[in-house]
Amino acid sequence: MEAKTNLLVRDLRAGYGNLDILNGVDLDVPGGQFVALMGPNGAGKSTLLKTLYGMTSIKGGNIDWRGKNIAGQKSRAILGEGISFVPQGRCNFPVMSVDENLQMAAYTLRDAKVKADRDYVYDLFPILKKRRATLAGNMSGGEQQLLEVAMAVLQRPKVLLVDEPSVGLSPAAIGIVFDELLRLHADGMTILLVEQNTKKAMEVAQRAVILRLGQVIWDGLPKDITHDELGELFLTGKMRGEADAVH
Ligand SMILES: Nc1ncnc2c1ncn2[C@@H]1O[C@H](COP(=O)(O)OP(=O)(O)OP(=O)(O)O)[C@@H](O)[C@H]1O
Q1: What is this structure's pTM?
Q2: Where is the ABC transporter domain (predicted)?
């Protein structure tokens, strides 16, 4: 059963128009795993999430999800398959209330399901229930980030792709957002997280995958790579002990 929820990425090549960014990504994510995707600026981390969510041009390779190749499908179809995406940056409707934002997030659902799914989200995020009539744009950055995660989990995905949730947040708000991600993970959700705050990412993730120049160059347990090693990689473009700079 568990194997069915694996996400198998094979030799994935993708980019924007003629621009190649992913140059043969291989990744196998078992169901329920919490994976942090890391790497230097421009490595292709966000592009990988966007590609999994059908937002880039696929040049080759497969994204096998529950026995089906979803590479090249439209985002809406991918959402329907149980993969949801929280993009980087503010992505709510600021002059709509929390409740209205959740209604917007439910636009692909049948009416009867919308209320049930909003209730599900309010159970998950009681803080949003209290603010249901508040305009999203009038909430704190942390609350808005929670709303954006809530909008993505409304349809009860199996996999949540989250891009840089800590950007612009205070340490306290970062703590709240990450606690919520951990809670979703504890409930069985598979999470792929792109996060510049490597300290936080390494604390919450079960596995670290490092990308460079659109390829996976390291894959292991967070405890097996130090912050110094990561810092070195981000600064120089090479892993400790690697002979030639490739940046
Ligand atoms: N919509 C786009 N059109 C064209 N090029 C893009 C687009 N989005 C990203 N890129 C380019 O793709 C490359 C990889 O970007 P991406 O955002 O995936 O990197 P990243 O590893 O997430 O980096 P960062 O940590 O800086 O966010 C960069 O050179 C970037 O300029």
Answers
A1: 0.92
A2: 7-238
